[in-house]
Amino acid sequence: METLRLTMAQALVKHLQAQFIVMNGVEVPLFGGAWAIFGHGNVAGMGEALAQVKDQFTTFRAHNEQGMALAACAYAKQHRRQRIMACTSSIGPGATNMITAAGLAMANRLPVLFLPGDVFATRTPDPVLQQVEHFNDPTLSVNDCFRPVSRYFDRINRPEQLITSLPAAINTMLDPVTCGPATLALPQDVQTMAFDFPTRFFTKKVHTLRRNRTDLDQLTAAVDAIKAARKPLILLGGGVHYSLAVEEAKAFVEQYQIPACETQAGKGALAWDHPLNLGSVGVTGSSAANKAAQEADLIIAIGTRLQDFTSASRTLFANPNHTLLSINITPFDAEKHNALPLVGDAKSTLEELRAQLTSGWKAPTSWSNQVQALNQAWLSTVDEVTALPAQASNKHYLPTDANVIGVINRFASTNSTIVQAAGGLPGELHKLWRTSSDLGYHVEYGFSCMGYELAGGLGVKMATPERDVIVMVGDGSYLMLNSEIATSVMLGLKLTIVVLDNRGYACINRLQQACGGEPFNNLLQNCHTVDSGAPKTDFAAHAKALGAASEQVACLADLEAALVRAKASDKTYVIAIDTDPMPSTQEGGAWWDVAVPEVSSRDEVKNAERQYKIAKQMQPY
Question: Which GO cellular component does the record give, naming just one (predicted)?
């Protein structure tokens, strides 16, 4: 057997280089490179291995381990889970900094390869710098924290273990059923150990998107359910994007005249102005989509996890005789909500359904006309909410999030991608943002991770450098994680960033009060501070210090002009604008189950708890 003597780290990198995938009929490297922040736990092993191939396999340096890992998540999401980034860090805090991103990848079913350095497998120098010791279990390290947020986890304690474990990790990430993060913890000493690896371990391998076919009995049951429906409604989830089934979903909607709505992950699957697109659904849904969901006798959920925001905490599908047909690649998801499961790849399953359905069958015209009338009313509402207000040039007027969204959306083009993740903006964008491109809306709302926005924007730009990437971020998320602004400038990956400064965690402040609580510890004005209060952060000055072009604007009219300057800039451009922390779009929406204290001295909490108990009665159990 022909062998090649390499260190474990060198063999790992060489194997990654040999992986390819077919995208749009073209072979491309499966791995877009590696993110790395080196420390004593990975610089000698992984650092040396990556340096050897720096001209063939790019290593990107970030400023924060969480930031680089979040960028890797966004890269995979924007590439529809077909391309992957590896992330390597030192042991201890470098590794634990990536755990939040691993949780995000796990929640969103995104492939990221985590390669944290680990303590010595030999234990000879224990305890090493940054090692956390467990008195009764010397096999544990902080990297075991990755276990609950990894689809695949292994600790490589011998170089030859890589031969079986690394392909298994890649297979896990590429399988649409098990897709998610994989973690290989790499002990510092094992990274540098040599082994005679079989050369076939480095043979080029070309992967393709797997398309699991559905069960014929399930398909027959699904066809029967569709034919029996008088008020069908389609829920377009993220699986439509990941299956590359956008065109098939559109064809299905149009052929059978079934109205459709979109989850956060599914938004963009239909153009916003498609006559059968009712917009967002659920807690942050349009009035048209939610009304249709309440009346529908058949809900066809395609590629969605059916989380609480989609189902309004299991209260939205209110027709007592409704059937939920769940098309999903993952049996775990297809069986949720006591659904009629149709397990299979979204693209293939839609094709098979069209082949089985009677060619003349369509949703009743009365139903289509009813929901389209609702939708026209909703579109008029969006026009009103996002219109430029009379106070657009008033420097004393604090604009709402909806005001700012309207300005940015009118400025954006079909080549723009909006990026967001946390706070009140995901809900506002889900309701109000209009996109005609399936790549135009990138909102991470599975983990809803504050700090994702700026790092995520970087990952989106890496995946689709030809697109204009616009990041909307609140002051809270900006202050949590902003260092990758400097990385974007360093890499020449231009972002347009709009910081909405409402001086605190406004979304949670509103939720706190909705639950009867007093405003406390969310807005800066309600926090424990020195007598002079919390300082006013100069976001424009801060961004400039990180290398970006920047400015503070005083009103919406100034924002319009600033966006033009940002467009002309050749590097990342940050625009800060003060906004009102209190308003949110009241139109549309649905109930969300947020538990209220059963005992409180506040009358407001008591009243909220009474209303909560009434709302709970809408749930099936």
Answer: acetolactate synthase complex
Q: Distance from CA of residue 8 to its chain's centroid?
A: 33
- The CA–CA distances, whole Å, from 334 to 239, 317, 324 equal 12, 16, 10
Residue linked to tokens 């967001």: 420
- For residue 128 the two structure tokens come to 């090493």
CB-based contact 419:443 (threshold 8 Å)? yes
Task: Give the CA angle between residues 236, 409, 270 to the nearest 5°.
Answer: 20
* CA pair distance 468, 35, nearest whole angstrom: 23
Report the pLDDT averaged over residues 241-257: 98
Q: Give 534-546 pLDDT, tens digit per residue.
A: 999 999 999 999 9
Q: What are phi and psi of 234, to 5 degrees?
A: -100, 135
Residue 354: CB atoms within 10 Å: 14
Sign of the CA dihedral with 456 first, then 461, 467, and 468 last: positive
CA–CA dist 415, 470 (Å, integer): 11
Task: Measure the CA–CA gap between 521 and 529, rounded to whole angstroms.
Answer: 10
Structure tokens at 26: 């073209």
How far apart are alpha carbons 156 and 118 in whole angstroms?
A: 9
* Helices and strands of the chain, counted as H and E runs: 24, 23
| Rounded Cα gap, residues 614 and 616, in angstroms | 5
| Full set of structural domains in the chain with CATH | 3-207 (3.40.50.970), 216-378 (3.40.50.1220), 387-578 (3.40.50.970)
pLDDT in tens, 87-140: 999 999 999 999 999 999 999 999 999 999 999 999 999 999 998 999 999 999
Q: What is the pTM of this model?
A: 0.98
- Residue 52 corresponds to which tokens in the numbers above? 């050897």
Give the phi and the psi of residue 490 in degrees, each rounded to 5.
-60, -35
- How far is 47 from 36, CA to CA, in rounded Å? 8
Between CA 385 and CA 379 the distance in angstroms is 10
Supply the mean pLDDT for the chain: 97
Neighbours of 1 (CB within 10 A): 6
Confidence at residue 360, expressed as pLDDT on a 0 to 100 scale: 86
Task: Give the list of residues 6+ apart from residue 44 with CB closer than 8 angstroms, or none.
Answer: 188, 191, 192
Q: Cite the beta strand spans of 452-507 per DSSP E.
A: 468-474, 496-501
Give phi and psi for 365, each to the nearest 5. Answer: -60, -35
Question: Where does 175-215 have alpha helices with state H?
Answer: 188-192
**Interatomic CA distance for residues 234 and 309, integer angstroms:** 16
Please report how many Cα atoms fall inside a 13 Å half-sphere around the Cα of residue 517, on the Cβ side: 16
Strand extents, DSSP E, 287-415: 298-302, 323-328, 340-343
- Determine whether 308 is exposed, middle or buried from the number of CB atoms within 10 Å of its CB (0-12, 13-18, 19+): middle
